[in-house]
Design brief:
The protein is built from 5 helices and no strands. By secondary structure, the chain is mainly α.
């Protein structure tokens, strides 16, 4: 999947969470890629917020990290609400 031309704040939040989870385990991008059978360049792009992951990717990453995929999505959602709650509400 090609890199998105425009940054998405939720993709950036998601990427930061994935990077944190990976680093907490002491894994390199190559190690994470090997564990989840994904391309390390793609994972690097995800970590930088360059793409919005598919549902399958989110589920796979949850499995690899040993957590519920919903917990990853929930954290993105909480960060998003925290920003909106700080006076940055945007209409949907």
């Amino acid at each position: 999947m090609p890199k998105s031309a425009r940054s998405n704040p939720d993709a950036i939040r998601f990427g930061a969470i994935i990077q944190r989870l990976r680093r907490q385990r002491g894994w390199t991008l190559v190690e994470l890629a090997r564990r989840c059978d994904m391309n390390p360049s793609y994972l690097g792009t995800l970590e930088k917020g360059g793409n919005i992951p598919s549902l399958g990717t989110i589920l796979d990453l949850g499995d690899i990290f040993g957590i519920d995929a919903a917990d990853i999505v929930r954290e993105v959602e909480q960060q998003r609400r925290g920003i909106r709650g700080a006076g940055h509400d945007t209409p949907r």
